[in-house]
Design goal:
The complex is a heterodimer. By secondary structure, chain A is mainly α. Chain A contains eight helices and no strands. Helices cover 83% and strands 0% of the residues of chain A. Helices cover 37% and strands 24% of the residues of chain B. Chain B is built from nine helices and ten strands. Classes of the chains: A mainly alpha, B alpha/beta.
Amino acid sequence: MIYALEVTIKSLPFLLEGALRTLQITSLAVLLGLIIGTFVGMARLSKHKLLRYPATVYVEFLRGTPLLVQIFIIYFGLPAVGLNIPRYPSGIIALGINSGAYIAEIVRAGIQSIPKGQTEAAKSLGMTYWQTMRYIILPQAFRNILPALGNEFIALTKDSSLVSVIAIRELLRSGQIVISRTYQSFAVYIAVALIYFVMTFIMSRIVRWTEKKVTVS
Amino acid sequence: MNKFESEPILIIKDLWKSFGNLEVLKGINLEVYKAEVIVVIGPSGGGKSTLLRCINHLEKYDRGEIWFQGELVDEKSTDMNKLRTKIGMVFQQFNLFPHLKVIDNLTLAPKVVKKIDENSAREKAEKLLKRVGLVDKMNEYPTKLSGGQQQRVAIARALMMDPVLMLFDEPTSALDPELVGEVLEVMKSLAKEGMTMIVVTHEIGFAREVSDRVVFMDGGVIVEAGPPEQIFKQPQHPRTKEFLRKVL
């Protein structure tokens, strides 16, 4: 028991390094997801079928298939058709594409939450669709969806543990490495879980705080 | 009509529009001359707002033609965004941009649409805010203003684009009674300066005092139109008479 604790404490710096990687991967994935999600979310609301249908397929497919399978397709599947993406980018792309689908739905709801009068006022001043989106709709929409985006970040922090299967040394993978050396699976997995929890707990406090700010203004 | 010699700046020919099965406009004909102030009155659901919204193409019409300064209001043949810069619109619900300060509400469109530089846009905005009596509010956010102040900002915002024609869609209907006057004052001064205006309103006093022509709409048609003294004192059509009896 004492030994298990000792081992865990000793391996803490190594685990925290993994946690940092987890945050890194998650941040980049959310950034990618945000870019994808913004455009796909807008496309979902387009009056042009050529934009709307592919966007719908994207969202439905990515949400309707396991993230683990998506990771495998990108890291193990694509090389078979001649597209080799290194480990880390693979993980980030898989997570980003996946969260893009969820963020698209958040963005769509955010855009729909802005009263129609805003678009009409912008149009009546001669603004184009893109100008209206860029200056009027999206700034207001993003303010409203900030809490939802925060929750997506939290969900993705946990989901990012899946990329451990392609040997990306994030938090879970770091824990597994420690266990393979020390055989203290219980203590180390508990430590890993706690580190995840501390991260998501802090994030959810931040989300709660932004939620309050958004509703006040 | 001798006050207005030249060509009309707006010509509406046999305009039809329906929402699903509901026919809202059934063959509207109207010509508007430069510096003319037209007030459109009539019961709700009569098609007044829809007519206004067709003019700057916020609403697509089904049949007929709208010509504005020799250009057909139709997205196939005309750049609607460009055309809309010449037609200002004031909404019942103000529709100010809540995430922007008053001054930025005014300067945004000139900057991004007309590529006017920041300084000249600000200068112009301050001038217009002074005009509507709100220059001291320029760094406030719209939600901090009263309804009447918001609507005056909205008018100033529309004027920033130097419109040739101003459309007012029930500009005082959402206001508390004590705030109606300040908005009407701004509109009156605009009219006096020769702005061409089409105003949908229930303010009969404004119509009587300011308008050159009153248009009475009901059931998707223009029932009667003429100078205010004629419409209000000797309405010809029974529907006009009935409506006026209710509102006067």
